[in-house]
Amino acid sequence: MRGYPPGTAEGTPAHTSTAHQRHDGAGPAVFGPLPLAVIIAVFVVPGTGWKAYSVLTALVVLVGAGLFARAWEDDRPRTGLVQRVVIVTGWLWLGCLFAHAA
To answer: Which band of pLDDT confidence, cut at 50, 70 and 90, is reported for residue 3?
Structure first.
């Protein structure tokens, strides 16, 4: 859809596959809780370093998610890049937090 991957028709199709619908439905379930987890961590993780890292991560994830939503609706060419920045930032923080806790 929208020309991605290359060779796919431009625009949003009238009908999408079941796999596509599942993919779209999983997005809010997977990425919705991430900003909430980071915000909660700001208040509960011990140590100034972890609190600062959590605040910075929360800012990047929240602002990035808003930028991604706008870029998606406007069909901007760098939409995927914005999405990846949000994903990598959030999951890197989560992975580091889990490693630290282990």
So the answer is: low
